[in-house]
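Onboarding guide, step 5: your first structure request.
Type a short instruction followed by the sequence, for example:

Predict the 3D structure of this protein.
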Amino acid sequence: MSRVDGWLRRALPGRCVFCLAPLPDEAPWCVACFAGLPWNRPACDGCGEPQPPAQAGLRCGRCLRRPPAFDRAKVPLRYADEVAGLVQRFKFDASPRAGSLLLELLVAGLTPDERAWPEALVAVPLHPRRARERGFDQARWLARRLARRLDRPLVRAVRLRDTPSQRGLDRGERRANLRAAFGVPAGLPGRVALVDDVMTTGATLEALAVACRRAGAREVVAWSVARTPLHDR
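The system replies with structure tokens like these:
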């Protein structure tokens, strides 16, 4: 099991972060709670959309009709149950405990080959006004710690426009809303992983992927902790 942030260990030493059962080692969760999380399996390799078991290993029809701007997506969990609660506490209450646990879950959901693949990470940025209102930028918070964990540079993207809320917009409207919304410094390495906390339709990550390709990236993958299932959007 991956190393837990020191803050999280001090907060709940020797106890499962979900059920508070005693733990035999430094893992942040017990086996039963870990297995019972809303894992996003199987999922489309292209966009991370949850798939029925019969379609495991296949790309969804939407990706076949219109492949996303990133090459593939890895989103280990669904935005539901305990994971939804953690994301809400992290995003809206700025809880470092929730953020540390989400980081651990993302790392646990990536294979060793996936963790070794990127040459740089790029976080989905908030507009500075929204970051000031919220008090922090949650995707950058995750990406900065993940970059240290993976020993990779974190390239800072900027939000060029304070786009209206994506809530209530369909996939096409979200894409239009985010067109030319991001700027990325030129000279990116060839392999780049984008980092966000929650992936809904993927429009935000697509817009950032386009900006990364313009900045020199040849391959772009999207990493997010959780995926909002289609019926919950």
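Each response can be followed by summary notes, for example: The chain has a mean pLDDT of 86.
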